[in-house]
Design goal:
Blueprint (H helix, E strand, L loop, with lengths): L5 H31 L1 H7 L8 H6 L6 H32 L1
Length: about 100
């Protein structure tokens, strides 16, 4: 892989953001439920938002800024697609049921 190619940061950042948006909350929830039980895990789950400080911190240094921008793009687009598809499926279920 050629690190100097301008597309590498874009592709790696976007897919890293996509994976970040899916894997981090899922892993956090599973680990919490396993360690402290389901009820306490539900109370502690919002703390997963602190993990967003990692891609936010990547925006500060000049060397990682381009990568961080694409990480955020991946995170935001993943959330938009998941919410959009969920809303569409919910609407279809309401209309056909």
């Amino acid at each position: 892989m050629h690190d100097s190619h301008p597309t590498v940061a874009a592709l790696v950042g976007f897919y890293l953001g996509l994976a970040y948006a899916i894997l981090v909350p899922g892993t956090w929830g599973a680990l919490l439920a396993w360690v402290v039980g389901q009820e306490r895990a539900e109370q502690l789950f919002p703390w997963v938002a602190l993990t967003l400080l990692v891609p936010l911190a990547l925006l500060i240094p000049r060397k990682t800024r381009r990568l961080a921008q694409f990480v955020w793009l991946g995170i935001i687009l993943t959330v938009v697609v998941v919410v959009g598809v969920g809303a569409l499926v919910f609407w279809i279920l309401l209309k056909t049921g």
